[in-house]
Amino acid sequence: MPKLSRSDLTLAALGVLGVLAVFGLYQSAFPLAIVEMEITREDAVEIAAQFVGNQGGDLLDFKQAALFTGETESLIFLQKSLSPEDAARWAHDVPVWSWNVRWFQPLETEEWLVDVGVSGTVAAFRHIIEDTAAGQHLDEAAAEQIATSFLASQGWMVSELEVVSAVTDVKANRTDHVFIWRASPETIAWAGDGDGEARVSVRVQGDQVGGYARWLQVPQDFSRELQNTLSVGTLLAVGSIVITVLLTLAAAVIAIARYRSGDVNWRTAIVCGVLVGTMFAISIATNWPQAQFGYQTQISWTVFIGSALLGLVLLSVFYVVFVTFPTAAGVSMARDYFPRSVDGFADMFAGKIFTAKFGAAALRGYALAAVFLGYLTAFYWFAQRFLGAWLPAEGPYSSIFNNAFPFLTPLTISLVAAISEETIYRLFGVSLFKKLTGSTWMALLIPAAIWAFGHSNYPVFPVYIRGIELTIGGLIFGVAFLRYGLVTCIVAHYVVDAVALGTPLVTSANPTYIVSGLIAIGLALVPGVVGLLAGRRGTPSPAPEEAAA
Predict the structure, then answer these.
(1) How far is CA 531 from CA 365, 469, 493, 539, in A?
(2) How far apart are the first and last CA of the chain?
(3) Cβ–Cβ < 8 Å for 298, 111
(4) Please, which residues bridge with residue 209 across strands?
(5) Buried b (16+ CB within 10 A) or exposed e, 315-330
(6) What is the dihedral of CA 143, 148, 154, 157, to 10 degrees?
(7) CB 523 within 8 A of CB 410
(8) What is the pLDDT of residues 178-192, one digit of tens each?
(9) How many Cβ atoms sit within 10 Å of the Cβ of residue 56?
């Protein structure tokens, strides 16, 4: 039986406490919206195509794209105003989440767009045609009759609807009408002016129904207040990004200066940067459905594909540079100030992962990930009860559903985030600020805060709460960087992100996505399995700090 060091036992014990915190407090800290994801992308496309066919549309020569989206503003309003059960009911019926299916032709105006809710019902559609397209010039009464007949065909009780507005748009070759009704007498009270209410609209183009939608009308005061609050978070995030760019430029200057004195290992830095750039390229490439959905028909398909490929290459090269210079400068400086922290880092990027040293670091990474997840859970449990923090209940929405291969998203994005952020903020950042301030604690705190406030654009309130949460989290990773080394931090960061990104798949209530989620989370176990196998072949390496004791 391999002997565990005192430091390893401490980390393992804290990891166990972290797991207990997650299991004991998770539902209180991160409530789940009571909404099930009942259909897949394929189901939504089939439902939407059938709907278009029923409207007389011919999709034979059209390209198709689908995107899963959620209305964040509506979700926040519902959850701030109602009980979890009532909020879930409204979110399901409005609906807040939906598959947006689009059919289009390059260089042609005509498009069909259909939104399919998570329950499989059509929530909206739009038939886009030329403004000059011919049609009839109906008066408002005749157009309203067409609109209400359509609503009746969709299951609406027209007699229960209350007219809000009717707008007429006279074009050269036809007249269009847009009618909006209040869909239910039930409203959602809010402390400010106005109430939230469900609405439904129908667009009549000539004598044909060309649009339909149902949605939650959020009070304007609430919307303005929310956007103002989120803009503060965006400003904090942008500030963090600017400082990060400056850090990267500083890393480039330092790396070049140290290279001239023969103190830079470019091979490790370049391999690290290329790996991150490659993973980033894969993540973007597999997210093709989202890019395709955003295609603007005013440009040719060839130009669009070429632009997308060029953008992919340029962004990937940017990531290579973004990681290479901080890695090169960081390893060089860390050898001066924290030499034990980079133990095994070069070996990892030389492919030496089936070793006891890497295996021990990987297992410590899993323990650190458990500590971090437990801390996050306890933080939000405490913050919501005693600090006035608030975050929306998690629902079925995640951009992961827009990936062509959902199980690849946790793998690629987690690797990109883990390697790039740990090399920039821990490896280089901690070493740089140790040199500048002479204080180890300031060296840990400053890059932790820069990293933390870069996440302030999430809908968590107050907007600075994520900065506080992750500054503390950054300090945890910083201490781990000094005590256990960079490899442990990279593995832990990867595991945390892989589990977080894979969770929406597992909780989607859809068998296909559940399997994908389990695969994703299973992939996150690879470093731990490697560590276990390596540990069986010999005694695990002691923590870097203890190795030098």
Answers:
(1) 10, 30, 16, 11
(2) 23
(3) no
(4) 204
(5) ebeebbebbbbbbbbb
(6) 170
(7) yes
(8) 999 998 888 888 877
(9) 9
Look at residues 472, 454, 76, 469 and name the one whose alpha carbon lies nearest to residue 233: 454
- For residues 165 and 168, give the distance between their C-alpha atoms in angstroms, rounded to a whole number: 10
Which residue reads 């105006």 in tokens?
109
3-class DSSP assignment, residue 84: helix
Rounded-to-integer distance, Cα 530 and Cα 213, Å: 52
d(C-alpha 315, C-alpha 325), whole Å: 16
Measured between alpha carbons, how far is 113 from 100 in angstroms, rounded to an integer?
A: 7
Average pLDDT score, the chain: 89
Q: Which of 391, 506, 401, 294 is nearest to 69 (CA)?
A: 401
- 416 contacts 319 by C-beta, under 8 angstroms: yes
Taking only the tens place, the pLDDT of each residue in 266-305 is 999 999 999 999 999 999 998 888 899 999 999 999 999 9
- Which residues are CB-contacts of 136 (< 8 A; sequence separation ≥ 6)? 174, 175, 206, 207
Token pair for residue 319?
């990531």
- Other CB atoms closer than 10 Å to residue 219's CB: what's the count? 20
What is the model's pTM?
0.88
What is the phi/psi pair of residue 535, to 5°?
-65, -30
Residue 439's SS3 state is: coil
d(CA 178, CA 149) in angstroms, rounded, equals 14
Residue linked to tokens 């390229």: 281
Residues across the chain: 549
Three-state DSSP class for 528? helix
| Beta pairing, strands 162-170 & 111-117 | unpaired
Per-residue b or e along 112-121, where b marks 16 or more CB atoms closer than 10 Å to that residue's CB: bbbbbbbbeb
Sign of the alpha-carbon dihedral angle for 488, 239, 433, 268: positive
Give per-residue pLDDT as tens, 351-410: 777 777 888 888 899 999 999 999 999 999 999 999 889 988 776 556 777 887 777 888
- Residues sharing a CB contact under 8 Å with residue 284, sequence separation 6 or more, in sequence order: 291, 312, 315, 316
Q: Are the beta carbons of 21 and 374 closer than 8 angstroms?
A: yes
Residue ranges of alpha helices (H) inside 338-439 are 345-349, 356-386, 408-421, 429-437
Contact by Cβ (8 Å): 251, 244: no
Query: Closest Cα to residue 416, out of 515, 518, 277, 303?
Result: 277
Residue 4, helix vs strand vs coil: coil
Q: Cα–Cα distance between 486 and 509 in angstroms, integer?
A: 37
Query: One-letter amino acid identity for 255?
Result: A
Phi, psi of 528 (to 5 degrees): -65, -40
Listed range (115-129, 313-327, 342-356, 459-473) with the worst mean pLDDT: 342-356
The CA distance from 64 to 130, in Å, is 20
pLDDT at site 484: 94
